[in-house]
Amino acid sequence: MSQQQDSAKDMLGYEPEVRAVPKTEGEVNGISSRVLDWMGVHGKVTEPSAAAHACQKVDPDFETYYVVNHPWSVYELKKGTFSKGMDNLRKLLPEKGWKITKDGPMDTKAGSPEIIAVQPDSHHTLTLQWLNSGKPGRTELISVDVDSRCYRAPKGTDLNRA
């Protein structure tokens, strides 16, 4: 094991798995798709796909280690369906093997509802925020952020082109 790998393991508390970026991005996109299904709501969904980013804790230069992040949101729902979507997730996340680590108001002035969950087997994290500002002209939405743990890219991978 290289010194960089030892250092990464010490900083993270686990040995980052060697994994190709497209596989991890596909896995995170799949989780996002399932979460949308579990919400059981219909509305518009933002387009961006999951993408690799620097694993800041061990490799801020984005050369060897990476995480995959997928921020997206669902909006233009009928009134009342926002709370239905959050309630569905409160019920289904534990049924689907996720552990809810927070379910309460965000630490902001508005105190919007927030659910944070972790998948104990894969270590993916999920943050859901119902942004219901109540301010005229602002779009009400559920913001979703799916994150992977840190992985090590296979030897020869150029993460800036992955």
Please give a quick description of this structure:
This protein is α+β, with helices and mostly antiparallel strands.
| Number of E-state strands | 8
The N- and C-terminal alpha carbons lie at a distance of 24 Å
The SS-based structural class is alpha+beta
Count the domains: 1
The helix fraction, in percent, is 25-40%
- Amount of beta strand: 25-35%
Low-confidence stretches: none
Which radius of gyration do the C-alpha atoms yield?
A: 17 Å
Nearest-integer average pLDDT: 89
Q: What string, H for helix and E for strand, traces the elements in order?
A: HHEEEHEEEEE
Task: Count up the helices.
Answer: 3
Shape: elongated
Largest sheet: 8 strands, antiparallel
Protein name: Lipoprotein
Characterise this structure.
With 162 residues, the chain is α+β, with helices and mostly antiparallel strands. It has one domain (3-152). It has helices at residues 3-12, 21-39, 81-95, and strands at 44-45, 51-54, 65-75, 99-105, 113-118, 125-131, 141-147, 151-152. Strands 1, 2, 3, 4, 5, 6, 7 and 8 form an 8-stranded antiparallel beta sheet that branches. β4 and β5 form a beta hairpin. The longest helix has 19 residues, at 21-39. It is elongated, with a radius of gyration of 17 Å. The model has no long low-confidence stretch (mean pLDDT 89).
